[in-house]
Amino acid sequence: MSAEHIQQLNKIANSRSSLQKMLRIAEEFCEIVDISINAEKSQVLHICPKKDEELLPIQVKDQQVMPVKKSMPIRYLGVWLTQSGSKSFQKNLIIEKVKNVCRILKWQRATDKLVRYILNHVTFPQIEYLLKDMVLSESVCNTVNSTVLQFFKNKVGFARSAMNSIFFMSGGYKLFNIQNRQIQMHGVNWLKRVNADNDVGLSTRIRLQQYQNATWHHKSVLNSITVVNTKMGHNLTGDILGMLKLIDFKFHICTTLPGSLTFPSGGFIPIAECKETKWFKKYRQSLKNRRIMFFDQLFNIDFSTFLHWPHLLTFIKGVTRGAIPGWYNDLEALHNTPTIQNKLIGMKEFHNSINPFIDMYSPFKTKDGVWYSQKDKGQYNIGKLTKERSLEDVLVDDYIAQHFVQVSRGLEPTSIVKPCEKCPININTQGNDPRCLIAIDKHESIQIPVKKSKNSTSNTRHNQMEKRIVMPVKDIRKMHQIINEVRKVDTPYNNGIIDEDIDFEATTLVDFQRKFLESKFVTEKVTVNKLIEITSQLRHLNNITVYTDGSCKDFDGQYGMGLGWIIPESMNSIENDIKFKCYADHFPSSTKAELLAIITALAVAPVGSVVNVFTDSQNAINIVEEIVSNRDRDIQWTKGKNIISRNAILHMIKDLDLTVQCHKVKAHSNDKYNEEADSLARITWNEIFSGERIQVNIQAFNTPMIIPLWRGLALDVSIKDTLQSINEHTWTQKWLNQNRIKWWITKDKARKIHWKFTAKSVHPSKITTFKSDFKESKFRQFSLKLLNDELPTMNNLHKRKPWIYQSDKCPFCNAEKEDNIHVFTCQSFTDENPFKDLKEKFIRMTHFEANKVKPTLVLSKTRERLQTVTENWENQKATAMEYSWITLPDIIAGLVPISFVTACKDLTGDSTLGAKVVIKSIYAFKKHLFGIWKQRCERLILWEKSKNITTNDKRSNKLKVVSDNSLTVIEREIAFDDITGAPLHNASVVATPVSRQRYSYILNEASLNARNFGWLVTPVQGATMSRAVN
């Protein structure tokens, strides 16, 4: 039997020798099972190679495999890695994948839905997998998106200049945007990883801490807007946080899992807030190297003096040699300004007059050693820390130091120190050791800077290399003085008399309950007092029955939630019924209101009790039962709704050790207590603003570690749904803010539009379904072009090719600009009012659809109601679209007013039937408009041929002078009524291809304009047209 080769064998080791050992073990295993490693296909990648190992080969079987070059990518688990960390190959691969798909689909006959499906659900998943370990920059995202858009616009028949938002927003084609997709994918995955209680979570939090360190900021990188422009790809966590912060995401830290985020704090004046952003970015790395973050660190022990650079070096880390950095000079000049001087008083009060950043206890080692000063019996002893770990009679809390004395000049100590020659405080008992050793108390001593220097702080022996104290001696004495003053502060003793009448047990219980409720809820004090009073009434029970209910109501766009519950006295051992009601906001829904009612009811239950919850919400019961059955499993913020409420129920059950049992009550079944709970939960308009409000306090949670916030609001839905919703609304807002849209869809008008049905009227079937044909694609294309003024009207043609279409006026009436409304309201071929005609057709179509779904409608009343709704629609100017009311041009463009939807629902007496009437009637009206548009296009083709405008001219960007000659030879496949007298739109003639039937006529403008289209004028048989338009 021949040995088979292993196709995939991935080995990771921290050194070359370890990898070689692993390969030997793998080879031994392969021999046992009769398989082998294909060394010819093996590749070695050094992530952080040593210089002497960079080009050393790895022995695989009988062959040597050389490490790949720094820039050469190799594939590992579907992504591509390089020694240098470059992702250029992966980026180029993504761009090439997109271009390749577009090249293949370009020449395929496919509907818009099919092309969209291939892009969104075949191509993008492949791209997203390549994004697992990287984030695309904005420029690369723009390249990918522009490639997709350019191809898709061409495929579905839109101009290259069409608004991008049409194709990305949910009401349009709903194409995936690579920038939105990577934010959604990375946001969900990162939150899942960072909250994981395993090695993946720990490593993610380590990366997060590295990013926090890189920012060198006094605020958490999770809940601040600080973004560090790290090199793309060097910290994936930082890249993801940067993207999320751009869309106003922050994160709240709940607990302290291993590896949780830490950041410097404790200062009063952060340097980042004292200087401009540009300055801080310039010196960020230097300040980080020196461990300087607060202005407080630059002052002496009592904030009276700005530290000199040599003195400052003893308290900060980093290189001690070299020139004084520029940031120090800038901050030294800044400290004399009124801004900092005014803050010094607050700084002293904040720190109680002692600078905590002058580390007097933690040793800082330099090449000259660690030095301490200790005051003992009025004397200042200087000592250099030695290596001796212990000596006889030395306490554990003492350092062992070599004693030095200060050289005196005129009875005054100087900065120069020299070794002591065994004074009385010497504890060194070894006779052969000449050093004088002393014990330094760790809590009574302070570290001082001592080094060899020629510069003296006491004007002694200048220009001589001596061991000197490089800080003023008076500052050392001041430090000891402050320490002694602090230690003299005694806690006063209270000799108060104990009141024997105080019930300490009850007082302690109330305090505990208040603390518990205030930690769980964010609400007013009066609400907490109510809950405490209820808790006191129930503390003797171990089994409670409660009826809960919640409500959510929409008051013209202003939502409010009410919650209430009742504990019946007949079912519990209490004197009277206990009732509670409150109100809530944020993420309104009836289910959330029901859950909040249950949460507040559980909060008042005694510890260890059984709670029977009766509710008419089956959804709330399912959620609670799911939580109870999985109480040992944490609820994550990556999927689902009502996440805060679900977490609150879980924590409430765990904290109070409750047993919760839910019971279903049929709604409105004349159950006394359920009706009472329903009455308590009802909410009115005034109570939205004036009622007592309550919400869950997310700071009471200890899991998960990090909770997402959007604009300061804790999310009650999954971050995936939130990001998807943000992306959809972002593109919708971009669409509404386009100049061609916002001039006629004002804010007031937008409130009168039913956007759900407006979007539905564009699509005969959902854009995400598999049902698709070319007829539907054409209808969708027409609807979107009509809504967005993208139809090839003369107005748009003149903008795109002014050298061919020299005017934006209608070529048939030559009176008004031809836009997407004038196309359907041109009066050049009729004596009737086209607005009135279109309105009547719309009413008849709506009437017809209403009678189909409900034949029992009274015809006169139905027509009267529709006339009332459409009475203001007869407007003969498209410019009226810019006003706040709905007009017929708005209906033609594709808007569906709320008043029309309400009228249809009232006519049918059913919301579902009313919605069906709305959609069917809008579809029928758009089909009628589509027919008018096709006929207009036929007329324009004739006009173009009369002007000698060819297809090549329209495709070319070369300038062409169009003749204004009214007599033009054109070729036409259809006979004209003023020449032949035959009826128009003969089926046999229209069906004949252009290539088979060509006729030449000499035709003037009048006869061209007088062509009969049936829907405008009635033809006169056997004669020319009775009316010509000038």
From TrEMBL:
Is Metal-binding among the key words of this record?
Answer: yes
Annotated GO molecular function terms are:
metal ion binding; nucleic acid binding; RNA-DNA hybrid ribonuclease activity
Identify the residues that the record assigns to the RNase H type-1 domain, covering every copy: 540-686
Reaction(s) catalyzed by this protein? Answer: Endonucleolytic cleavage to 5'-phosphomonoester
Q: Does the keyword Hydrolase apply?
A: yes
State the family named in the UniProt similarity comment for this chain. Answer: Belongs to the RNase H family.
* Name of the protein this chain belongs to: ribonuclease H
Q: Which organism does this record belong to? A: Diversispora epigaea
